[in-house]
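Q: How would the structure tokens look for this protein?
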Amino acid sequence: MQIWSRAPLRIGLAGGGTDLKEFYSEFGGLVVNATIDMYVYARITPTEESGVHFVSHDTGEESRLEYEEIDEVRENLDFPENMPLFFSAYRKILSLTGDVQSHRLETFSDSPVGSGLGTSSSLCVAILKAYDEWLNIGLTKKMIASMAYEIERIDCGFEGGIQDQYAASIGGLNRIEISTNGDVK
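A: Here is the predicted structure in token form.
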């Protein structure tokens, strides 16, 4: 059994920069964007091997966690230098479910990394959605977007705004309002 998910990439139409915390926390933000017919894909395959195997076909990176290392990942905020989004998303899922059986998580994209289309946010959303589907967690689109933002911007310290995660999770043409306290509508 394999579990597949995908999240669309986006183009910004108006308001770019108002979704940065430095701006919206003082003035609020408003962006308009649209998702395009290009995606980031995630595939989870349960395995008989012990542990977790992450594979990024876009960057050629791989990382393995033996089952004994999972508790360390659950409690440790430091990540290996490679694949921090994978590790942080996995840790977030562990915090919701307590345990996840051995599996292989693979990702690939229709667009190169660093294209300016919100690829890393779409990657994070696709990973979270794949886990949600596999484990039947019941996350809403807004919950996935919020978790992806937290993973990218807070846990991993990646710079950027808040629009990408919501566009990737919700899809379509979006008018996104951000209040000064960070609430997204």
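The CA atoms of residues 84 and 156 lie 6 Å apart.

The longest helix spans residues 119-135.

Upvote if useful.
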